[in-house]
Amino acid sequence: MRIRATMAAATVTGSLALAAFAVPAAQATGQPSLAQAHQVAQKAAGHSAPQARSLTATEAGDPYVMDATFSNIKVNSGKSAIVVGTTNTVHVSYSFTFTHGSDVDPTADDFVPGVDLYRTDTDEGNALFGDAPATCTAASSTVANCKGSIDINPQEALTNVDAGAKWTGEAFAVAYNGQDPDSPSDPSKIGTAYQDAVSSNALQRYSKLTVNASPEPVKKGGTLTITGALTRANWDTHKYAGYTSQSVKLQFRKTSSSTYPTTYLKSVTSSSTGSLKTTSTATYDGYWRYNFLGTSTTPAVKATGDFVDVQ
Questions:
Q1: Cys-Cys link to 249, which of 62, 97, 264, 289 (CB 3.0-4.6 A)?
Q2: Residue 53 — φ and ψ, nearest 5°?
Q3: What are phi and psi of 112, to 5 degrees?
Q4: Regarding the domain with residue range 207-308, which homologous superfamily does it belong to in the CATH classification?
Q5: pLDDT in tens, 252-298
Q6: Which segments of the chain belong to CATH 2.60.40.10?
Q7: Per residue in 43-67, pLDDT tens?
Q8: Helices (H), strands (E): how many in the chain?
Q9: Could you give phi then psi for residue 270, rounded to 5 degrees?
């Protein structure tokens, strides 16, 4: 799920910028959406609170900040890079420990906890949420272990500008305590918790790499032509396209070895269509492959080695 809006980066920055995003109505199941709960929690925390605080409503009608804190927060198993292709939804797991006062029930049906990822480093911000709230399991009367996922559908949520950018994680929780999320009769009964900067992640465009060495077989001392292509996901067109002007390494391993040498035979630059082509002398039976080391927007990828019999 995503929420995207255009904003003036010069005047609206950081977590505060997310207040400008439109918030969808409650989900069809009647449970408040994560984006809706996120905005409630963020506003109650003053938009930039470094951690959840214990406060009561400052004026009639204001949600209060619960006696609760987040800890042991892990997003994407602690890995920074999140790789997304063109079609399949990527489920980014997260977990956290929720420590709370005895009056808080994180297992209640209208308790909505979650983690989202947001970026506001350009005029067009973006926020990514899960399709459902996290599930919390009580470990004691005041501690719960919560798990969920941020569900990224590239055809709905991303454009190419989102690749390589710094994405920041936020943890939040809202206890509606019987109040209607769309039209609460007494908002001061709604409890919130919020913590910013719980993770730092980078989204990358899934990459593919192919190789073909020919002729096969080849005479010893003959010339091999090694072709291939480097492509990556295009989040604007939802297709794969050539990754141009990139340095790709050529590697060879003998059949007597199970690993490729750490040194490279040469570097080949991908063309305007992402294609690769070079030549090399055939000396031993073995496997040829291309190896792309990756960039900030695109992950590293290695082609499956192509075997050539030298006669």
A1: 264
A2: -125, 155
A3: -120, 100
A4: Immunoglobulins (2.60.40.10)
A5: 999 999 999 999 999 999 999 999 999 999 999 999 999 999 999 99
A6: 207-308
A7: 888 754 333 333 444 445 789 999 9
A8: 2, 20
A9: -65, 145
